[in-house]
Amino acid sequence: MTHTDMATDTDVKTDFGTDIKTDVRADSDTETNVDVTTGLDTDVRDLEDLKDVKADVDEDVKTDIVYAYAVLRRTPEAARAVADLRGVAGERIRLLEFGDDAPDGASGGPPGDAPDRPPALAAVVGPVPAADFDEASLKAGLEDLDWLEATARAHHAVVAALTGRGIAVLPLRLVTVYRDEDRVRQTLEARRDDFLPLLDRVTGHVELGVKIYAAPDTESPDPEPAKGKGLGVGRAYLAGRRRRKRSTEDAWQAATDTAARLRELAGTLAVDRVAFRPQRGELAGQVPGPNVSNDAYLVPEDHVEDFRTRVLAAAEGLPGVHVEVTGPWAPYSFSLPAEPVS
Amino acid sequence: MTQPVAGALGGSPRLPSPYDQGPGGQGANLADILERVLDKGVVIAGDIRINLLDIELLTIKLRLIVASVDKAKEMGIDWWEHDPTLSSRASSSTADRPVAEQRDASLAEQPDRRSLVEAEGAAEAADPVRSLAEENERLRAEIAALRSADRSPAS
User: Fold this and answer.
1) Distance CA A42, CA A38 (A)
2) Which residues of B fall within a CB distance of 8 Å from A283?
3) What backbone phi and psi angles, to 5 degrees, belong to A42?
4) Residue B30: which of A245, A283, A329 has the nearest Cβ?
5) What keywords appear on the UniProt entry (chain A) (predicted)?
6) Is residue A48 less than 8 Å (CB to CB) from chain B?
7) Is the torsion defined by CA of A342, A295, A332, A201 positive or negative?
8) Which site among A137, A227, B30, B152 is 20 to 30 Å from A128 CA-CA?
């Protein structure tokens, strides 16, 4: 038996080329040992293969994270609409489904199947390079107006393409980014009860912007004061100055009043209204005058032209203002819960 | 009613043109887009923390840049970086306190800063005319009287 034990030791230590010969001479105990050894070796190889696989997976996780653009109802139209879209990183856009396990809410299942089940939701997502959308990169990117513009326009283009096909969406805020698709599902599932009523509210509606400017060209030319009416030069100057102040303020006030009337009219044509801050800067581009008001209206989509025509027509009859109607937009301004969930 | 913008309800193909040529196109006013994608839209917490605090600050910053030509010009491209009131990086480089302390302090101060900035923005947005008006209450009353006499609303 001593000899056999030694043979067993040899089996364990040498590689298989030699082992085979030893095996032939060894008794059944030794054979068992060899089998165990062989099994172990195979396990090690498997593990190494697994490591390679895992490295690949890690690589994937590192290179791609998930950018979410919008939440919508899961429909075949929605799936078709996203098929050709490209996102903020030029990536292919897809529909990430969540909400329930039904294969397809529209076509699957017998007719009588759970009619009271709430509609399934989906998220519009795209894989983006983690290196460009991790915390540090985003911080840097958001500080770069060029990056911000490109990203904002690309984000907006995805959302607008869906709205353009009449699909109701809740647009998400810029750079809403997740580690993976499961995280998107979890997070959106948790907010499902917020999203469904909001989606119902914006369905069949679009957002229109109405910007009202005080138009400088309506300022009446400063009427020359009657000269030599007993006013000295200084007094005449002061009087002129006061008049100019007065006419400027008057023009502003007139524009504000007119804006109020237009807002009232627009309000009657819309379902809801949200006020933005007036725009002043160069980002706003060429403007006809100071921006008096800047509002967003939620308008039924079959009243868009009616809204536009009537607001512009009303503005034409009112002096001192220039009115711009923008849109239709996705309902960005009407996609927030009344009370944000903390 | 006048044009088939919205299409029919039955799911027939809609005309994408209003979106393609309008705000969806490249020609859309950047301020209009930014105030929507940054300031509006559904806020949900992403995994990347930038969403919460930094977007909020960025939004305030955006309001400023949209509110003032001068500020936008003087800030240029790296507009965020150059404003010590909003960039913790900028402020920490100009002070002697440890960075961590700076961060804490800046985080703690943010609510105040924010209201300050918004107040400034609001004042700015209110037009210089208003400060003139505040200068002279009597004049304003006079104007109001003139206006009501002069220009009965034509509505």
Assistant:
1) 6
2) 29-31, 34, 65-66, 72
3) -60, -45
4) A283
5) Gas vesicle
6) no
7) positive
8) B30
To the question of pTM greater than 0.80 for the whole model, the response is no
CB pairs under 8 A between A and B: 245
Interface of A with B in 84-143 (CB under 8 A): 133-135, 138-139, 142-143
Report which DSSP code applies to A203. Answer: T
Nearest to A138, CA basis, from A158, A159, A161, A155: A155
- The answer for B 98-117 residues in CB contact with A (under 8 A) is none
Residues in chain A: 342
Query: Which letter, b or e, does each residue of A71-103 get, where b requires 16 or more Cβ atoms within 10 Å of its Cβ?
Result: bbbbbebbeebbeebebbeebebbbbbbbeebe
Cβ contact, residue pair A161, B19, below 8 Å: yes
Measured between CB atoms, which of A144, A155, A277 is closest to B37?
Answer: A155
* A78 — pLDDT class (breaks 50, 70, 90): very high
The count of residues in chain B is 155
ipTM of the complex: 0.71
Distance of CA A149 to the CA centre of its chain: 14
Q: Which of B21, B30, B48 should be substituted to probe chain A, the one whose Cβ sees the most A Cβ atoms within 10 Å? A: B48
- d(Cα A158, Cα A150) in Å, to the nearest integer? 13
